[in-house]
Design a protein that fits this description.
The chain is α/β, with parallel strands linked by helices. The chain contains 16 helices and 33 strands. An eight-stranded parallel beta barrel has the order 13-14-15-18-19-20-21-22. A seven-stranded mixed beta sheet has the order 30-29-32-27-26-25-33, covered by helices on one side. Strands 1, 2, 3, 6 and 7 form a five-stranded antiparallel beta sheet that branches.
């Protein structure tokens, strides 16, 4: 198919560093790591859907090879040039070798990609009847040719952070969003929704995967919607770009992504990326070949020592990236540096991060090099690093993840609070720890409360509305006969499975939602909200909507009007947590600042008498600021009958308790401004079934206007 050119005047030896395609003088330097190769051809294309390259340049002889690096400099090339590699070498799966010169391979360090309209996962990379017309091509880019207008990563302290996990397409694509169809589902569309995020009180968005991924890696006839099948670790996903839709300009994709980051930063909102370094879209032995398998299969993947033709799978995705191999370690580190330096990303959430704690045999590694590389990298020093500290093969490292500054998705916060609010017994002791930053988990490593990323829901599992509406998952639409998705959701449907027109059921569900949101946003740690939970988004009971690119997964903006009461509740909680309106000795502080050194008294229905028995469904605590000028009392009744709580002492110079939050009340009485909080003139408070109440005192002399909130950090327990 391809005619190789033996000699080309414009081809010079070039250099092994830097890797990838870099503009240099009046040409481009190309460098590729291909350990298993015996010969490499650099293929240049004129168009994205070209069936054949315009020329193939052999990187032949010692001048074009330094160790395992193949390189060349081509005169006259510029940004926008399309290219790929043809790699010759041994095809010996039994030895772990999978070179195939019929494949057009992508450069792992390519900074832009062009995806043809006819791309097909199972055919695009093969030398078939259409040649390489349907194959993805790399694109030369010059990432310094962008005006950031002074923008920098925000470096917001985690104690001031409220994370909102969202899907770029799902957040903006629903017709109810009111966007121009050309912008719906894109980076540009997300820019249009920034005022909503800012008004809600969000300080960081955590974007589901935006690395270029394989959208066809899903059951037949369904798309891969979530994006957890990466093809490249350096390139933004093309399909989320309105510019790509208009003219298929690969370089415009980069600019639109950076425009989005810059706009979010101007609104004071950080950008955190959900990154997948534990596996790739190449899947198992029968999967497609995009890049890594054909370049250095034994370096990039964990292979079965007893049968190198088979891949170790601790990810549930048929292969496992060999993160502690030196070459792969460098790629991961270079990828993160790339996103920080060229895209101003503020943080990363690592999917199945515990995979990176395994050695080349798949066993847990006590000091995994890649994790320490990232923990100590100076370029990443101000960057948030968040671990999903478990994998699909049973390695669970919440509280013990390697490193000094990693934050962790606290799965125990999610599970313990779900069971407690649901009404399960034996949860009070655990929930008491979760509310104050999980010192039982993070105390042994002397970590701050902010190390705990607290969440009730995320993309993986029920939405908050479904958590209180379904006992069981309903994943039939996924085409896997209901086998996919977790069967253990610690959910409760409030008496009726699925949608209900019963006013009592509707009222109870919203009360439970308020209970969850209050404990999430008042707990010590770093809170994370799931997309649409603030307006009761439902997925119809589907708890694994990874292949549902349709209204099941999209945010229906009409829900904002239908559930404005819950939206208001979240907005008020976020405002109290974030705004710095408490004035102490002339300084404006957040409530989290005020309570940073506080005293906690644990109570039950009687002050000083906490009940942590298995039968208990109630919890109460009193927070007192270090200067004894402010006090807050939280009472939670997770029982199905009313409970009467005797109130602790409130007297600060004659001041009394005022009711700030009562989740049993309808909006707007469920949460009120502090200066409008109703006086509680009794010595006790009756809490309705499955409700909570927050009282405050000593606040009158501190408030300059409506004020901030956060339950506790660095707490002492009594």
């Amino acid at each position: 198919m391809v005619t190789s050119v033996a000699t080309t005047p414009g081809l010079l030896p070039g250099q092994a560093a830097p890797l990838g395609a870099s503009v240099s003088g009046d040409g481009v330097n190309f460098s590729l790591y291909a350990r298993d190769a015996t010969a490499v051809e650099l293929c240049l294309f004129d168009t994205c859907d070209a069936e054949q390259p315009s020329v193939c340049l052999p990187l032949a002889g010692e001048a074009h090879r330094s160790g395992h690096y193949w390189h060349g400099w081509v005169q006259g090339l510029a940004p926008g040039q399309l290219y790929g590699y043809r790699v010759h070498g041994p095809q010996d799966p039994a030895a772990g070798l999978r070179c195939d010169a019929r494949q057009l391979l992508l450069d792992p360090y390519s900074q832009a990609l062009a995806v043809p309209a006819g791309y097909c996962r199972n055919q695009a990379q093969a030398d078939g009847p259409r040649g390489w017309a349907d194959a993805i091509k790399c694109v030369v880019a010059d990432l310094d040719a962008y005006d950031w207008e002074g923008d920098r990563p925000l470096n917001r302290p985690s104690r001031e952070t409220i994370i909102y996990e969202l899907h770029v397409r799902g957040f903006t694509v629903h017709p109810s969003g009111g966007l121009n169809p050309a912008m719906a589902g894109t980076y540009a569309g997300l820019i249009e929704k920034i005022p909503y995020l800012k008004d809600l009180g969000i300080t960081a968005v955590e974007l589901l995967p935006v690395f270029e991924f394989d959208p066809q890696d899903a059951p037949a006839g369904l798309p891969n919607y979530w994006g957890y099948q990466p093809i490249s670790f350096l390139v933004p996903h093309h399909a989320y770009s309105s510019a790509w839709r208009q003219n298929a300009d690969a370089l415009a994709v980069l600019d639109e992504f950076r425009d989005m980051v810059k706009a979010l930063h101007r609104a004071g909102i950080e950008v955190i990326l959900d990154v997948v370094f534990n596996h790739t879209a190449e899947a198992g032995a029968d999967g497609p070949t995009f890049s890594y398998r054909g370049l250095a299969n034994r370096d990039y993947y964990l292979l079965d020592p007893a049968d190198p033709s088979a891949y170790l799978d601790v990810t549930g995705c048929f292969n496992t990236f060999n993160g502690n191999n030196p070459v792969v370690r460098r790629l991961i580190r270079d990828s993160l540096r790339h996103w920080v330096q060229h895209f101003h990303i503020d943080g990363f959430r690592f999917d199945l991060a515990s995979v990176l704690a395994r050695d080349e045999s798949g066993n847990p590694e006590p000091r995994p090099p890649i994790l320490w590389d990232l923990d100590t990298d100076p370029v990443l020093a101000g960057t948030k690093l968040i671990a999903e500290a478990w994998d699909a093969a049973g390695l669970y490292q919440v509280g013990s993840f390697v490193g000094d500054r990693w934050q962790e998705w606290n799965g125990r916060f999610r599970d313990d609070l779900r069971r407690f609010i649901k009404g399960d017994g034996g949860q009070v002791a655990a929930v008491s720890q979760r509310l104050i930053g999980s010192p039982d988990i993070y105390g042994p490593k002397r970590r701050e409360a902010e190390a705990s990323i607290n969440f009730i829901t995320c993309h993986d599992g029920f939405t908050l509305a479904d958590l209180v509406s379904y006992n069981d998952k309903h994943n039939e639409a996924n085409g896997e006969a209901g086998r996919d998705g977790s069967a253990d959701n610690a959910s409760w449907n409030c008496g009726i499975e699925g949608p209900s027109s019963d006013p009592q059921v509707q009222m109870l569900r919203k009360r439970q939602i308020r209970n969850f949101l209050t404990l999430l946003l008042l707990s010590a740690g770093t809170p994370m909200l799931g997309m649409g939970d603030e307006i009761c988004r439902s997925q119809g009971g589907n708890n694994n909507a990874y292949c549902q690119d349709n209204p099941i997964s999209w945010l229906d903006w009409d829900l904002l009007e239908q559930n404005r009461d819950i939206h208001r509740f979240v907005r008020e909680l976020c405002a109290y947590r974030q705004r710095r309106d408490l004035v102490v000795d002339g300084q404006a502080l957040s409530l989290a600042d005020l309570l940073q050194r506080n005293h906690i008294s644990w109570n039950g229905v009687q002050p000083g008498q906490p009940d942590r028995t298995d039968a208990s469904r109630s919890l109460a605590l009193t927070l007192t600021s270090s200067a004894h000028r402010f006090r807050c009392a939280l009472m939670v009744n997770a029982w199905w009958e009313p409970l009467t709580f005797a109130l602790p002492e409130a007297d600060f110079g004659g001041q009394l308790w005022h009711r700030w939050i009562d989740t049993a009340q309808p909006s707007p009485e469920d949460i009120v401004p502090w200066d409008q909080a109703e006086l509680v003139d009794q010595q006790q408070a009756q809490l309705a079934p499955r409700s909570l109440m927050v009282l405050i005192t000593g606040h009158q002399g501190l408030i300059s206007s409506s004020a901030p909130t956060a339950i506790a950090a660095n707490s002492t327990i009594s």
